[in-house]
Amino acid sequence: MAMAAAMTFDEVSMERSKSFVKALQELKNLRPQLYSAAEYCEKSYIHSEQKQMVLDNLKDYAVRALVNAVDHLGTVAYKLTDLFDQQSSDVASLDLKVSSINQRISTCQTYIDKEGLRQQQMCGAAPKLHKHYILPYSGNSKYPGMVQQLQTEFRQDSSEMKPRPYNSVKTLSWHLSSENSSSSATSRTVQSSVEPKAHKIATDTFKLPGAEREKGQTPIPLSRHLHANGGNMSPDVVSQKTSVKVSSHGGKQISTFRSFENPTMGRQIIRAPPRTKSMLSALFVKNKAAKLKKISVI
Amino acid sequence: MARAGGISNPVNVGIAVQADWENREFISNISLNVRRLFEFLLQFEATTKSKLASLNEKLDVLERKLEVLEVQVSSATTNPSVFN
């Protein structure tokens, strides 16, 4: 289809040029015709006896010749103008194509220059990233899986003995190692005393008043009771204070959750337990806060 | 008869003069239209010349651009290592 359209466009342009040439040729042929007609009229007026009739015929022929000449000139002018417009449009399209090619080449040249400049620049090697989160081998198996993996990575890196670019920066590994070293000394003594207390407190606080406790049955957890009642809790249950004492460093008492007693107060800030406390107590506090937050939303 | 011939002579002369005047008027009209045609041809020639000159200038500029592009493309094709 494109080839056929291209051929028709060329054929149209060829026909236009042919018609212009033909019209121009016809206009050129008018000159000898007019000359021959003028000579014939002169000879006939001289040799003829009816001069008035020859004169009248001459007047009519002159008028028609003039009209014919004007018609031919108009045709030639129209065809020439049409051909000129076509050529102008072709030149404009060609100019657009050339400018597009020029733009592409300039873009390529720009990229080449930038690449050459980059290659020729005298710059050092790019800095390498080093592993920051490497825990030293502590021996405490609090997180056995993770510690083992990190230990293997640490051993690999330590075997390579690469100097670190940074110094005097306390990374996460340092903090964790310090935590492990401090917690290992005290957690053993505290953990044994805290864990049964925490377990007892958990069982006591989640014991609902008025709930009949059958013999041999474990107390119903708060979450299950919430789901059973559809979230409608009695204020007595919610207003129970939950406190967990941790005797590691003087024992800080966590503030209570009093959203239902004083709804305008909003939720009080629960302080995060210090790092020396056991993880179980920390999780206990966090779960309680999450559940009570759900109660306030409902 | 002589008087009739004498009377007819001025009439003939008058008719001849009138015919002459008509012929002259006709000739003047024809010449005027020919001059108008000539002026049209002159104006048409001037406008066509200016248009052709501008087209020629555009073609010259295009030709120079194409020559530059041809040189750039030939240099690019002869040195393919530049693009590596």
UniProtKB/TrEMBL annotation, chain A:
It comes from the Eukaryota. Residues 178-217 are annotated as: Disordered. Residues 178-193 have a biased composition (Low complexity). InterPro entries: ABI (IPR028457). Involved in regulation of actin and microtubule organization. Part of a WAVE complex that activates the Arp2/3 complex. Binds SCAR. Belongs to the ABI family. This is ABL interactor-like protein 3. The lineage of its organism: Eukaryota, Viridiplantae, Streptophyta, Embryophyta, Tracheophyta.
TrEMBL record, chain B:
Keywords: Coiled coil, Cytoplasm, Cytoskeleton. One of its GO terms (biological process) is cell motility. GO terms for cellular component: cytoskeleton; SCAR complex. Residues 45-79 form a coiled coil. GO terms for molecular function: identical protein binding; protein-containing complex binding. It is found in: Cytoplasm, Cytoskeleton. It comes from the Eukaryota. Belongs to the BRK1 family. Binds SCAR. This is Uncharacterized protein.
